[in-house]
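Lab notebook, page 48
Experiment: co-folding of the full assembly
Goal: obtain a model of how the components sit together before planning crosslinking
Operator: M.T.
Materials (sequences as entered):
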Amino acid sequence: MTDQLSEVPDEGVTRRAARSQEDILEVATAEFAANGYAGARVDEIAARTRTTKRMIYYYFGSKEALYLTVLERVYAQIRRVERGIQIDELSPTEALRKLAEATYDHHTTHEMFIQLVSIENIHRAEHLQQSETILRENATAITLLEQVIERGVREGIFRDDVDALDVHMMISAYACFHVANRHTFAAIFKRDMLDPALQPSHRRLIGDMIVATMADRRNRRTVP
Amino acid sequence: MTDQLSEVPDEGVTRRAARSQEDILEVATAEFAANGYAGARVDEIAARTRTTKRMIYYYFGSKEALYLTVLERVYAQIRRVERGIQIDELSPTEALRKLAEATYDHHTTHEMFIQLVSIENIHRAEHLQQSETILRENATAITLLEQVIERGVREGIFRDDVDALDVHMMISAYACFHVANRHTFAAIFKRDMLDPALQPSHRRLIGDMIVATMADRRNRRTVP
DNA sequence: GTCTATATATCGATAGAC
DNA sequence: GTCTATCGATATATAGAC
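Observation: model returned without errors.
Model output:
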């Protein structure tokens, strides 16, 4: 890799710069997630990279712009996960469970994403609202869920008074809480919600919860 | 904040001093909730009270000690709400719904509590762990839930593979998410989860969700 | 693009009079 | 208990050489 780069000086410099920026973003993500926006230190980020503080400002302009780039990066990541979910051959019930489990799997393995979302909410999403990319792209996660629910309602197996956003809210709430409130929950109740021994049953429970709620046909407004 | 959070002042402290401390705590709660621990400014808290910054340090010693007092105060508040819940004459199903709705009602009307819990989780609950009062008192919320579930299992109407902490987790997750992730959710999906027009249906849904999950008797391990 | 050194601002905390 | 004034530490951001 390094040899190839030195053979092509022009690309080498750019590629090296891109790698340096990636390096900064990686460290910055951890720093912001761990300490919040105001608590994060640019000095600390610089110290943990191969580059210097001067380069952070050279590449990103400001602490806020760096934070925004970090935010866009983790939202792009979950978008990729969501796009990869396949539910074509599944029944509405099975599809719902699979979507819930996929969200649970993503959130429980991406603690920094959840922390950054919490931080962003403390700041009333004012940074997120500056990102047209996130606002435009991340809302599309809901379309798959809409199709599943519509099919389930049409087949008469789902209640019809809960829409896709409500279901997404229930799934996200459960999966987020496991990670976001892990520490206060553990401190008070002495149970680590991310304990690997608990994950199979918690993964089953999120599916049970969503399926049981949606399959409760007593709540239908119209007869199928 | 409209709730009565004030404690009875010590005999040695004048009424004016106690009122001054209450004034500081009121403003500090809002300041920490709105900006996080590192983002909160002691100067700003002082400016919005009738007292001065010097007095904040005189009464509370440090920014961190002030924050800890704020934390204990909001946790004491939810404890009072939890203690006031009456479910004596209700069936296990009705009791479960009432507990879920009470949590929903508390969280949706105490945004600052939820924000402070989020902030505390960003800091890995390191302040909360210093408060013996919170750790000792707030875990008792679970006993009422334990009794309800035990009764429901005994009567053969609830599944028996989900314990009280899991139910508490599901209820808290739903109710917390509404408040904690309100801003990112609204930014991306253009729906304010705290819109008063949505509250009746969301309040019904949390009850439906918990009852449907627990009443799913296919998940029983033992025959009642 | 990369470095060292530094400007500029702000914040938590305190001194000391009354 | 209460005030004004201010310290000392630390933060973001930048200057300017190479």
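Interpretation: Residues 41-43, 53-54, 57, 62-63 of chain B lie near DNA strand C (CB under 10 Å from a C1').
Next step: discuss with group before ordering constructs.
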